[in-house]
Description:
Blueprint lengths: L5 H17 L13 E6 L11 E6 L3 E2 L2 E11 L2 E10 L19 E6 L4 H5 L6 E9 L3 E7 L1 E4 L6 E2 L4 E5 L7
Antiparallel strand pairs: 1-2, 1-11, 3-4, 4-5, 5-6, 5-7, 6-9, 7-8, 8-11, 9-10
Amino acid sequence: MKPIPPIFSFLIIAAVCWSRSFAGEVQSPPSLEGASLEISARKEEYKNLHHDVFLNLKDGISWEGSEDRIVTYEPKGKNAHIIVVHCDKRKEDYSSGEIYEKNPSLFRRYYLSGEKSYEKAKGENPKPATITFTDKGGYCYYKGILQGYLTCAQKQEAEDLTGIPVTILLDEEKNS
């Protein structure tokens, strides 16, 4: 029997890995520790939005302009319940030259949850938002559809994120 040439070995391994990544129904990842969540939608594309929504959240990251934290993550098959807190420390109007707020009472705090009210979202036992996972690429790349609301401490209207796509990139070191 002739040995298999190296290029064919590589193609066979790649095909097996690829088929494992996409085979069957997509399951929610077991953990989002250290993950990045990207939510991007224009109000022109989604009639349920009041404003454009562009968030790139990184669990556990705290820098001068932002703090992000996944408060709740409960995977259940192809769905997952989630609550995320995002604190934006940038000034809305930085014409004075300063970009970041110094006064914590002026920080914009957001909750991604299943609650339409900011007070309920930050309260005890808030209803979580739901992600239905629709696609998986490789080991650490997921796509899904949100069902929930983005509420803000300073704005009275909640953004209805129902049907909005979310992209998740897992931290390979924490989820391997």
